[in-house]
Amino acid sequence: MEKNRYLFKIYYLGRAKYYGSQRQPNYLTVEDCILKALVKRNYIRNIKLSGFEVASRTDRFVSARGACFTVVLEKEPVLMEINSALPNDIGIWAYTKVPLDFYSRYNAILRHYVYLVPKPLSHLKKTRPVDIEIMQKACNDLEGQHDFSNFFKRDKSEINPIRDLESVQLSVENDFLIFQFKSKSFLRQQVRRMVKKILELGMSEITYDDFIQLFNPQKSFSYQPSDPRGLILWDIVYDEKIKLCEDLKSKRRMEDFFLKKKLSFNFKHQLFYLLQHHDFS
User: Rounded to two decimals, what is the model's pTM?
Assistant: First the structure.
C-alpha cells in the first residue's frame, strides 16, 4: 500500500507528568504518547522511518490547543481510533494529507501563543499599582523586527536572534491579564521572557528605559522567564492551500475534556473561597 504523509492538529494539557513535548530519554513526553498510540493502532511500524516531526516544541507545564505534527502513515487515519489510545489530556482533532516534502515546522507561516497570567489582576494590585497603559506601550514596542537576544534562553548553538513579531496584544478578561503573540517563529522561552519584562514594567519593578535597554544586543541581562503554566500554543497557521479537516467526534472529545476540567476547578475555587471567607457557625 502507498504510504502518505499527514499533517495533524493536536491539543494537550501541560501536566507535571509530561516533561515537555519533545522526546527525551527516561522521561514521559507528549511526543512519546502520540508515537505509542500510532504504533499501537498500527499506523506506523518503525518510528525512525516514519518521518515524524513537530511544528513547535514546548517546555514542561506548557499547554497547546493547536499544536501540529506531520508523519508518514501506513493507512488512512481515523482520528478517534488514534485518540482511543491516547490519554484524555492529549488528543488529535484535525488532519489533512500533505506532500511528502511538507514539514509542519518549516511550512508554518504563523504561530500564535496565548499567555494567561496565573494570578488575578485584583490580586496583583494588592501589592502595588498595575499600569496597564505602559504595558500596552511595551507590547507595541515589541511588534516589528528586532534583535531578541535578551528575550530568549541562550545555549551554545548559534541562533539568529532576529525575529519579526506581527502582533502583540494585551487584554483583561474576567480579572485576568491575557497576552497574545503572533509571529512566523519564536526563540526558546521568548514569549515567557517578554511577558516577564512587561509585567515587571507594569508593576514598576523596572523603568521604561530599563525595558528599552533589553533591545540592545550589546548588553546582556540574566533573569528567569514567567511561569510556564500560563503559556498556551494556541494555533499554527499554514498556507491557504492546506485545508485541515476537523473531526467532529474528536473535537467534541477535546471540548468535553476542557468542560470537565473547568467544572472541576470551578468547584475547587468555590470550595476554597468558602473555607477562606465564610463562617457558618
Answer: 0.94
